[in-house]
Amino acid sequence: MKIAVDAMGGDNAPLAPVQGALSALEEIGDLEIVLVGDVDRIKPLLRDKPRQTRLILHHAPDVIGMGEAPVQAVRRKPDSSMVQAIKLVKQQEAMAVISAGNTGALMTAGLFIIGRMPGIERPALSALLPVMKGWGVLLLDVGANLDPKPSQLVQYGVMGAYYCQEVYGIPNPRVGLLNVGEEPRKGTPLARETYERLRQSDLNFVGNIESRELLQGRADVVVSDGFSGNIALKLTEGLARDLMGEFKKVLLANFKTKIAAWMLKDGLMALKRRMDYEEYGGAPLLGLDQIVYKVHGASQQRAFHTAITLAYSYCHKHTQDRIRERVREEEANQ
């Protein structure tokens, strides 16, 4: 199985993607990885490493910057690492793409080159968030579609539920709607109409989810417009980062607190892992016709490794084919 990795995308490229790819190859025996990027920058990182026959270099001299306008960047830079990696999937030379690059450009390139899954109006960017109890919560959309229609939000719920069934083995995923209150009539006209459509669907709809309950484990999938979802995601990431930083300051303040930190070390490390996005790897752009995984722009080796193993499992189980079939059945039943 072959997976393409955008070696130039993200804040820590190309080192982090290369390290993540090498560690994934060591773990998965039948995996092949195509590192897509500037080979003159990638090759020096491989000099002291054992030769990997399952590692392929694909030269792509250009890079799409994190601040570039997505549509213009994709059109003007056909030789960028991101565009070339997605083209490999389109040409069936790889089964999935992993990138930590410009999110908007990744979605744009996916739409222009791969296209939408049949029956899906707009793809969604998903993110897996930690919860206080349970495995996590899949939040979508977190930035791809800022002004969705109710029908599109319902499709996000369908895709998210199927993804959780196939990848995480949740028999009947609970689906919630991010809103400003629990009552059915709360929120914008978009939220109110979406609530009714979700309530009438075959999904296991558990109602509105307020942002303060997002990490409480009330739902397995939470759907949102991309504007609100992105704010919720960034707030959660920032709060987790800042709280862990404050804990560290307090616990290292003096001799007594250092003793307390030593006694609490195991629990604190478990909490840090639970709140660290690196542990969750990446999440797919659901609704594209082929598999594209987005990892956080600041990702290090571990996040790339995890994202590659997730994508490998996704491909190995033929999850995309089953989601495509279920979306087709859902559309036929409407």
Automatic annotation (TrEMBL):
Principal EC category: transferase
Signal sequence annotation: none
Keywords tagged on the record: Acyltransferase, Cytoplasm, Lipid biosynthesis, Lipid metabolism, Phospholipid biosynthesis, Phospholipid metabolism, Transferase
Swiss-Prot/TrEMBL catalytic activity: a fatty acyl-[ACP] + phosphate = an acyl phosphate + holo-[ACP]
Pathway assignment: Lipid metabolism; phospholipid metabolism
Primary subcellular site in the record, as a coarse category: cytoplasm
The enzyme's E.C. designation: 2.3.1.274
Compartments, as annotated in UniProt: Cytoplasm
Superkingdom in the source lineage: Bacteria
Any one Pfam family match given in the protein's UniProt record, by short name: FA_synthesis
UniProt keyword Endoplasmic reticulum present: no
InterPro entries: FA_synthesis (IPR003664), Phospholipid_synth_PlsX-like (IPR012281)
One Gene Ontology molecular-function label: acyltransferase activity
Matching NCBIfam families: plsX
Binding partners and assembly: Homodimer. Probably interacts with PlsY.
HAMAP family: PlsX
Family: Belongs to the PlsX family.
Known function: Catalyzes the reversible formation of acyl-phosphate (acyl-PO(4)) from acyl-[acyl-carrier-protein] (acyl-ACP). This enzyme utilizes acyl-ACP as fatty acyl donor, but not acyl-CoA.
Protein name per UniProt: Phosphate acyltransferase
Gene that this sequence comes from: plsX
